[in-house]
């Protein structure tokens, strides 16, 4: 997390006073600098001087270090050198990007008048300057500063302290680059999961919240947190500020927000206003997200399941990377959003699945639409740039091409037989933008477009007569220059005479040094006025050239001025229908996601899941979407496995699977694949299985007992226990929990007992669907007394002393871990392997005896007074007991042998 200083923003009309003592000693320019800097503390000040943004004092030191640019000095302040560094304006975006990525915020200060105007005011006048924008991580709009495939959210967090504890939080998040605006409310227990889902690039909070020790940990997870003064989070003025932003008289037309949501929403728009300084980026009205509408997934689970990044921090290898076949940036962003927030509403999921099914069934439509979308522009980001005055001609072209693509897509979609609801909505949205606008843009814009509007030359010839006239004049004058050059060369008999142009001299005549004297002597000196002598050339001007120069400059300026006017006019037309354009842009994204998920389903052989409100969970031949792709690249098959956690009343069924198996057998893969299948189903995707029936999962938990967090000062085991505690405290019967080797991070018996007690708790109290992988084979005995627990194991076979992994999950339990065989595969020296084997056999003998005694004490059988009574026990109970005993003895034995063994064991125990 980046710690930021509060931004003290003065009331708009009141300019901050310059420090009196500084004013006494500093140059007028430095005085201006200090004044602007004082109003923007906590931000690096980019102070425009000619073609550079200069940074001074500490800002210069920070920037030179972060950007690796030279630190120089400029004059003195209070007797000391002023450190300075600068970045060229034309490459400033790159530098901005690096500063923002490093967690800094920047105030961009421009010259707001012509230097000539300053001069006219008096000799000592400094060019007026003003901050035109604050660049912060959450308020970016430039393509170069943004990741095209990810949303860039600014999040405001407002808190209400309830008297009896149990704080509530209002959250509002905005992506200025797409105009999205969402709000929700949550409890403190839900905060971490909600923040992880939104995944903001910058959060704003009050100073008090920023310094709150309880929240510190949660806030530290965020990339940048900016504390602001309390007035920004003032609930009393929130509604008015929102109404002002949306230019409405009352909130009636907007979604009904709770007071906390409105407070957060108002803080967010206030910050947007402040950072954009006078610009007012249009935002969609805040949409309210109902609590519980999405699957709760806490940060540890997201990290652990590698949803958008691998544990090593890479996108490649994550679930998102494996399923992302989108062809547009907006589609990719929407897919990432959906993956972050799987739905909990079965009918809404079904609507998404219907759209995917349509394109699974109709591959021609799918491919046609994908090829149109591939060329479609990112309209929402183009609109955002235009709205804050940072758009260029290519953004206008983007809108033109977007509307044209909308027509093409519509034509193709109208060939579908009975399009499902989601596609019908897409079609309605694509009809909205005015076709006339596209036609006008097409007639206005040239084929080749410059990147920035000030370069000019983007309006098509013939679009506006006045522009054509100005351009003709400018071009004709250029021709005049060419003919003048020929004439001068003739008149002077200097063949190599050239007319050139630069910004200092304007147009000038240039001859080589040997001809210089000739032009400087009579009679030619009457025409050619000497301007400059360089090493090899001499430069002259003529009065005729001066006149033509003025004409060209005027015509050029006029042409550019007209083009800029046309740009603003077209831009205003686009803004006038920005809601329609944004609806169409969203429709493209929806279609991209639906067709890409359909392509994934077809290419990787996925099936449509059945999602309902039951507590069922039955997957047939399930696969891990990421591991399967990785194996496929190497030409290796993935072994599919079933998993059934559905409740089966009246029967022993396995809502809690205990999975044992050797190292490297595929336990973790199996656990994760089931969680990922549930998640994919609930985002409305087909899933890697031959059949999947899933009762809505409201919370997903995934833990591995090995991740440590030394950076936060917690040991491996502490992290594991904190996370396990969260699950045992929070999981309910709709949750899906996967626990991988919990208890591994401590001494064997401590770990075993914790795992033992955790399983009992999950089974009895949480009653959630659970997959629990372990190397503690002793735990399998628990199935004897927990009716909804089921033992499963991953099969391996031994061949010539080596272990062969079959990756098949079957009922039963593993007899051993084959840890030594795996160590041998990994290349441990043979002597170590041999010694380990001998130590293991001794330990096993000792351990089995000890564990058996401990477990036997815990089994109800030992309350049975005699063997005769045990034999007379009801068969089901007897069977359970047999199972428990078998679990203690790896070798196959008949029920009778097991009972014999049990009593033999009991006889050995000390008498009570
Ligand atoms: N179903 C499968 N089909 C094919 N290969 C698989 C399958 N499951 C796992 N694998 C392969 O086996 C490797 C090990 O799997 P995994 O990490 O799940 O084992 P594990 O049992 O959890 O091991 P450990 O107990 O050592 O953590 C995977 O990287 C993958 O390449």
TrEMBL record:
It comes from the Bacteria. CDD domains: ABC_MutS1. GO terms for cellular component: cytosol. The keyword Nucleotide-binding applies. Keywords: ATP-binding, DNA damage, DNA repair, DNA-binding, Nucleotide-binding. Residues 735-751 form the DNA mismatch repair proteins mutS family domain. GO terms for molecular function: ATP binding; ATP-dependent DNA damage sensor activity; damaged DNA binding; mismatched DNA binding. ATP binds at residues 661-668. One of its GO terms (biological process) is mismatch repair. This protein is involved in the repair of mismatches in DNA. It is possible that it carries out the mismatch recognition step. This protein has a weak ATPase activity. Belongs to the DNA mismatch repair MutS family. This is DNA mismatch repair protein MutS.
């Amino acid at each position: 997390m980046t710690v930021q200083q509060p931004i003290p923003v003065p009331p708009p009309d009141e300019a901050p006073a310059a420090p009196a003592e500084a004013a006494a000693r500093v140059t007028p320019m430095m005085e201006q600098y200090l004044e602007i800097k004082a109003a923007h503390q906590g931000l690096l000040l980019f102070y425009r001087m000619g073609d550079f943004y200069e940074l001074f004092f500490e800002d210069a030191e920070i920037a030179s270090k972060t950007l690796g640019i030279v630190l120089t000095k400029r004059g003195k302040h209070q007797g000391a050198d002023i450190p300075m560094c600068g970045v060229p304006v034309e490459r400033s975006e790159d530098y901005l990007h690096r500063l923002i990525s490093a967690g800094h915020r920047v105030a961009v200060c421009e010259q707001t008048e012509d230097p000539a105007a300053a001069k006219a005011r008096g000799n000592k006048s400094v060019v007026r300057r003003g901050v035109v924008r604050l660049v912060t991580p959450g308020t970016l709009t430039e393509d170069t500063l943004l990741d095209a495939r990810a949303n860039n959210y600014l999040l405001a967090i407002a808190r209400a302290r309830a008297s009896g504890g149990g704080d509530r939080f209002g959250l509002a998040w905005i992506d200025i680059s797409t105009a999205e605006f969402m709000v929700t409310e949550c409890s403190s227990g839900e905060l971490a999961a909600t923040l992880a889902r939104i995944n903001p690039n910058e959060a704003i909070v009050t100073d008090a919240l920023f310094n709150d020790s309880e929240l510190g940990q949660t806030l530290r997870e965020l990339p940048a947190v900016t504390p602001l003064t309390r007035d920004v989070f003032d609930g009393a003025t929130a509604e008015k500020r929102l109404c002002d932003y949306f230019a409405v008289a009352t909130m009636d037309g907007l979604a009904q927000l709770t007071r906390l949501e409105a407070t957060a929403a108002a803080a967010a728009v206030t910050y947007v206003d402040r950072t954009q300084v006078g610009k007012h980026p249009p935002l969609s009205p805040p949409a309210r997200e109902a609590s519980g509408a999405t699957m709760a997934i806490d940060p540890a689970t997201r990290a652990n399941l590698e949803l958008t990044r691998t544990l090593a921090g890479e996108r490649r290898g994550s679930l998102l990377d494996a399923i992302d076949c989108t062809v547009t940036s907006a589609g990719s962003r929407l897919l990432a959003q959906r993956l972050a927030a799987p739905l909990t509403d079965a009918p809404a999921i079904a609507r998404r699945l219907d759209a995917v099914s349509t394109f699974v069934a109709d591959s021609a439509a799918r491919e046609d639409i994908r090829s149109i979308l591939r060329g479609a522009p990112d309209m929402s980001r183009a609109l955002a740039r235009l709205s804050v005055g940072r758009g260029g001609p290519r953004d206008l072209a983007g809108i033109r091409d977007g509307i044209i693509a909308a027509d093409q897509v519509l034509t193709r979609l109208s060939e579908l037989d009975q399009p499902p609801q989601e596609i019908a909505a897409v079609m309605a949205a694509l009809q909205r933008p005015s076709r006339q606008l596209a036609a006008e843009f097409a007639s206005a814009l040239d084929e080749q477009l410059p990147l920035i509007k000030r370069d000019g030359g983007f309006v098509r010839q013939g679009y506006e007569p006045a522009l054509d006239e100005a351009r003709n004049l400018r071009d004709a004058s250029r021709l005049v220059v060419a003919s003048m050059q020929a004439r001068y060369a003739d008149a002077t008999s200097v063949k190599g005479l050239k007319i050139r142009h630069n910004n200092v001299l304007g147009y000038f005549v240039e001859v080589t040094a040997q001809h210089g004297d000739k032009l400087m002597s009579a009679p030619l000196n009457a025409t050619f006025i000497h301007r400059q002598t360089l090493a090899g050339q001499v430069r002259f001007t003529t009065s005729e050239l001066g006149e033509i120069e003025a004409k060209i400059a005027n015509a050029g300026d006029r042409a550019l001025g007209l083009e800029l006017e046309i740009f603003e006019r077209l831009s205003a037309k686009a803004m006038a229908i920005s809601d329609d354009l944004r609806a169409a842009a969203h429709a493209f994204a929806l279609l991209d996601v639906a067709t890409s998920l359909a392509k994934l389903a077809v290419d990787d052989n996925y099936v449509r899941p059945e999602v309902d409100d039951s507590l069922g969970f039955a997957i047939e031949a399930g696969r891990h979407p990421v591991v399967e792709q990785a194996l496929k690249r190497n030409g290796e098959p993935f072994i599919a496995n079933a998993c059934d956690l559905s409740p089966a009343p009246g029967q022993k069924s396995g809502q809690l699977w205990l999975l044992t198996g050797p190292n490297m057998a595929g336990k973790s893969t199996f656990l994760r694949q089931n969680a990922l299948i549930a998640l994919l189903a609930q985002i409305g995707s087909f899933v890697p299985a031959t059949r999947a029936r899933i009762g809505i999962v409201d919370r997903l938990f995934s833990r591995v007992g090995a991740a440590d967090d030394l950076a936060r000062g917690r040991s491996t085991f502490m992290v594991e226990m904190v996370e396990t505690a969260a699950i045992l405290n929070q999981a309910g019967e709709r949750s899906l929990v996967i626990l991988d080797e919990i208890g591994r991070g401590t001494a064997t018996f401590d770990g075993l007992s914790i795992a033992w007690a955790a399983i009992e708790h999950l089974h009895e109290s949480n009653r959630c669907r659970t997959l629990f992988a372990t190397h503690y084979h002793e735990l399998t005995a628990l199935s004897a007394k927990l009716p909804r627990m089921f033992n499963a194991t991953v099969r391996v076979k031994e061949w010539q002393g080596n272990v062969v992994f079959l990756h098949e999950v079957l009922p039963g339990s593993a007899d051993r871990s084959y840890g030594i065989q795996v160590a041998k595969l990994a290349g441990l020296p043979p002597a170590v392997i041999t010694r380990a084997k001998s130590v293991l056999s001794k330990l096993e003998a000792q351990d089995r005896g000890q564990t058996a005694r401990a477990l036997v004490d815990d089994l109800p059988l030992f309350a049975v007074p005699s063997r005769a009574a045990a034999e007379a026990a009801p068969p089901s109970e007897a069977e359970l007991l047999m199972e428990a005993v078998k679990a203690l003895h790896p070798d196959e034995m008949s029920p009778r042998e097991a009972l014999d063994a049990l009593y033999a064991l009991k006889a050995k125990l000390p008498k009570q």
